[in-house]
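ok trying this again, last paste got cut off
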Amino acid sequence: MSLELISLENIQKVAHSYGYWAIFLGILLENLGIPLPGETVTLVGGFLAGSDELNFWLVLGDAIMGAVIGGTCGYWIGRVSGWPFLVKVGSIFRISEVRLLTIKDQFSQNAAKAVFFGRFLALLRVFAAPLAGIAEMPFG
């Protein structure tokens, strides 16, 4: 995958073209488990709101709804599809099954803390919801 696709300039172009949808989908996809730069999408949305191109409250609402819906869907994908799905996705990103087992064990030992603190760490945020489903944490 080319990193040029997710450059700041391209994110800005997409946000200018699609506005609120770009922010919502960017955050949703990151929280669903797809490694996208959600922080950058949020910052671009904030910049556009600060320059009066977008409404601040709608940007905030889009980011919140994207995170909630993406996290919920990511959890249920992990819960229903489970380990085989994770191994397939891991192979796409060249993460070995042994490494995934190590991550799963570490995650399961501290699952509740990992989900909470994962909101503040970029890579863990991407995988927190699907891993919570795979670890069969209670949804609540």
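PB: full thing came through this time. The chain has a mean pLDDT of 83.
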